[in-house]
Amino acid sequence: MTLNLNxxxxxxxxxxxxxxxxxxxxxxxYTFLLLGTYLLLQEYWTKKEVYRSQIFTNIVAILLPWISNxxxxxxxxxxxxxxxxxxxxSVTVLILGWNFLRYGFLxxxxxxxxxxxxxxADAVIVLDTDLRIVDLNPAAWELFRLKNNQVIGKSFESVLxxxxxxxxxxxxxxxxxxxxxxxxxxxxxxxLDLYISSLRDxxxxxxxxxxxxxxxxxxxxxxxxxxxxDEAMQANNFKTQLLANVSHELRTPLGVIMGYxxxxxxxxxxxxNEKQAATLGRIRESTEYLDGLVSELLDxxxxxxxxxxxxxxxxxxxxxxxxxxxxxxxxxxxxxxNFQLIISDDLPNSIVGDSQRxxxxxxxxxxxxxxxxxxxxxxxxxxxxxAARWKI
Length: 392
Prior knowledge:
Blueprint (H helix, E strand, L loop, with lengths): L1 E4 L6 E4 L6 H25 L2 H26 L10 H19 L4 H12 L3 E5 L5 E4 L1 H7 L11 H4 L1 H4 L3 H4 L4 E7 L7 E9 L9 E7 L1 H50 L8 H32 L7 E3 L1 H18 L3 E6 L7 E3 L1 H17 L5 E8 L5 E2 L1
């Protein structure tokens, strides 16, 4: 390394001859420069327009010092008085600084927002103030079967309006919401929940975001539920009608049985002994019990149709409870259970109410008690709860 004095200019220059290690160092540095540039170019061709601008600016900033240093090192222009690589580095810094400020390159928020938008399942379409398509996320590309950069910069009216069928005026309404259908050739119809919001950030100079959520499965479930509800209502109506018809048809033979039983008990067909009379009494009571069940079926049909009405008339409670107990005692005897009916002494001889409904309540309670009792017995008790109520 030597110092030389230029007699003309009076400048002192440094003469630094290149040693053997200089060229391996150049090869090493340029290898990594080439690799970095290759990676940037690869990103340039795979990214969208907004990212391409950032990458292109970075490539330009890198190439300036690289090319200037290459000219000096290669000696293409031997008469260049000095190495101007340091000056190009200054220009590079200015370009990179402008790039960072212009695109918010160091701002994490836009990157996070972009990652979220691209990963969500909802289709997102970004429009500018002139309703031109600025960006679409992958879900939107797939939903409308579009190719990258095929529609960027084109008007919404020419590309997507025929598919979405929404007016241009509605696109400018913040908070606009509507459910639409999307019909694609060879694909089933899709139901989409559309929502439009306006960009109010001054830095974006306005614009609109369209969000489309696929609600096809929800619509299908709603339709299936509606069909199931209609079928259930039809089945219930059929059951009600069937109960009414069957109950009506059963009453005729039951009436015949009770009629002939009464005639035999009155000795219309000849004399009968006490044992036969007792048996006929049991037949009569069991037939009346079946008639009560038929009445319950009719009542159930009336309940389902909303036509059941209570009939409040005076009746003798001891007679109603006594007949009911006699009818159900047969069930208790069959299971070898003790059955007992207790009626309070202060029960009046006559009360007002629907005797048929009270009898049904007694039959249900006592028959269930007998059914689910294996040993011991069943006791039914009617007593006064307070001045205004009686309790079973």
